[in-house]
Amino acid sequence: MTTMNMVQERLSEIVRSRARSEIADRELQRAVHAARAAGATQIEIAKQLAVSQAAISKRLAQAEPLDGDDSPYDIALRYAAGDVPREEMIAKLTAFDYRPATQSPAYDEPFVDVSGSLDELVRALDRGFLSEEDYDEILRGRSAADDSNP
């Protein structure tokens, strides 16, 4: 293996590891919100995670609950982690029923990704979980599907 190939393989492993880490964090986020919704106290949740109640309070306040279904970002993460083959990822993301993205109400306000929108694909692309080729193929597939459904 050449040095260039070795470097590329190590960089790819970093992306796979980041994706696995984000998957785990998102699964934990879902579990914490579900436990709280089921009636568990923040103290009970904190004990299970060996963290402070304040850490749970912060997690609940900062992160919106994720539903149980995979979002476009989740699908891209699972692909980047090596859990989903490319063909399956492309098919799922092409067929996904995306929510409309919202525009920032004012020029100087921060733009927030809309969960389940095409914004999530852009975020996955920006973070290296999708390639430009993946992204383009998904958009071409969506455009072709739109053209065939007047």
Describe the SSE topology.
Layout: H1 3-37, H2 42-49, H3 53-62, H4 72-80, H5 86-95, H6 119-126, H7 132-148
Helix pairs in contact: 1-4, 2-3, 4-5, 4-6, 5-7
Order of helices and strands: HHHHHHH
The helix content is 55-70%
SS summary, helix count: 7
Low-pLDDT windows of residues: none
* Biggest pleated-sheet summary: none
Strand content: under 5%
Question: What Rg do the Cα atoms give?
Answer: 18 Å
User: Structural class, please?
Assistant: mainly alpha
Cα distance, first to last residue?
A: 51 Å
Total DSSP E strands: 0
Q: Judging from the principal axes of the Cα atoms, what is the shape?
A: flat
Walk me through the structure:
With 150 residues, this protein is mainly alpha-helical. It is built from seven helices and no strands. It has helices at 3-37, 42-49, 53-62, 72-80, 86-95, 119-126, 132-148. Helix 1 (3-37) crosses helix 4 and helix 5 packs across helix 7. The longest helix is centred in the first third of the chain and has 35 residues, at 3-37. It is flat.
